[in-house]
Write a structure and sequence with these properties.
The chain is α+β, with helices and mostly antiparallel strands. It is 40% helix and 13% strand. It is built from three helices and two strands, in the order H-H-E-E-H. The termini are far apart.
Length: 78
């Protein structure tokens, strides 16, 4: 039987908590960054089609780069 990584389960739980309480997204993404040694992270949600990103949460991304994420780049976001 495979063992379960309790820390990873906690990270997933944090994401589920953030879905229910959007104010927790920053904390959840920060924990993901720390766990995987990421420098920064952006989470964006978009509907299918050509609609722009409807939600974007960022952690540790410098402001000058966030300013570059205008609607003209929405089609390039994957």
């Amino acid at each position: 039987m495979a063992s379960v990584d309790g820390e990873l389960v906690d990270l997933i739980g944090g994401i589920y908590d953030a879905v229910l309480e959007p104010a927790l997204w920053q904390q959840a993404l920060d924990r993901v960054c720390m766990h995987f040694s990421f420098h920064n992270a952006i989470l964006g949600l978009a509907r299918y089609g050509y609609e722009p990103v409807s939600i974007a949460i960022s952690v540790k991304v410098p402001e000058q780069y966030l300013a570059m994420m205008g609607p003209e780049y929405a089609t390039e976001i994957v």
